Amino acid sequence: MLKSIVAALLLCSSWGTGYSENESQELALVVGTYTDTGSHGIYSLRFNQETGAYVLLDSLALVNPSYLTFGKDSRVFYAVSELGDKNASLNSVGFNAKTGQMRLLNTVATDGEDPCYVEVANRMALTANYSGGSLSTFVINRDGTLSKLKTRFEGHVGGPDSSRQGQAHIHCVKKMNDGYILASDFSADQLLAFRLDTADNVLKPRGVAGRLPLDSGPRHIITSRNGRLVYVMGELSGAVTVFQYHAGRVKLVQSVLSDSAFARGGADIHLTPDGRFLYASNRLKNDGLSIFQVLSNGKLRKVGYQRTGIHPRNFNITPNGRYLLAACRDSDMIQIFRIDKRSGMLEDTGRLINLPHPVCIQFAKR
């Protein structure tokens, strides 16, 4: 499978056939996929954040690695296996950022079905288990491998949509600058707070951090660079909710619509590295990316919309803020957009990374 994908890329994309002469602009990245349509699992690439050129490097066989994240450096990353049974798991993967080579280190059960997000905080890995409605924690060993499940916390219900919020779902876990952890409690339209005890490497619950408007279905969480603002993408409402943040608590500032088609498929959310623009992806109808300007007070003003391929479940922005890469799952491709740093608008470069069912893009730390 890997050889055939590499051959196709080289035949169709002369701009993606090798490394740039400017090595300082070369980024290693890994892509997680769903493996129900023939994907091998995880793919590694090298991407030039100045020119947009790329080359495919390696692949690793893993079932449904739908979300992954790097540890404290680029030598190890952690990838979920999103499965709706006892085989749901979290994997530690050794990574060589220069060659793209990947090696499975170990696998542990999440004890929660369909893990869809993983976060690393200090010496702990945390998974959000969607169908399991729980948050699982694991100690990271000195060699980067994972211990067995340490603790698990349950989510809640209470939202008005009985078909989507009838059982608990945890969708995202996000570490804060001050040692707190926030989790999106999807079915209760709220954020949960936890405190990380770094001395004992234990996560302690601290109750409800704050509530979103009813029928939001909070999905992904991001923070401003100074940590004083929190932005949450609502999957059901299709709105981005803005909060002020302090010491494990949030205060609602604004809720602004991203999904004007009301498709109830809000997905991912990211800020540009300079914090001037925020993007939110929408699925199921009018698939694309909403573009927001971040005002001086942290509030958002919608300034544009960029259509994408089908089902942009995840996207990421290069560290220099020059390119946005959108993983369009059902189009079997990653689209490469150039970001206008003045306006925030996106220009479709026409360049595609063709991979089966891509759903997560992460750049290695430098």
UniProtKB/TrEMBL annotation:
GO cellular component terms attached to this protein's record: cytosol
Chain ranges passing through the membrane: none
Annotated GO MF terms: 6-phosphogluconolactonase activity
Domain of life: Bacteria
UniProt KW keywords: Carbohydrate metabolism, Glucose metabolism
SUPFAM superfamilies given in the database record: C-terminal (heme d1) domain of cytochrome cd1-nitrite reductase (SSF51004)
Name of the protein in question: Lactonase, 7-bladed beta-propeller
Family designation: Belongs to the cycloisomerase 2 family.
Biological process (GO), any one: glucose metabolic process
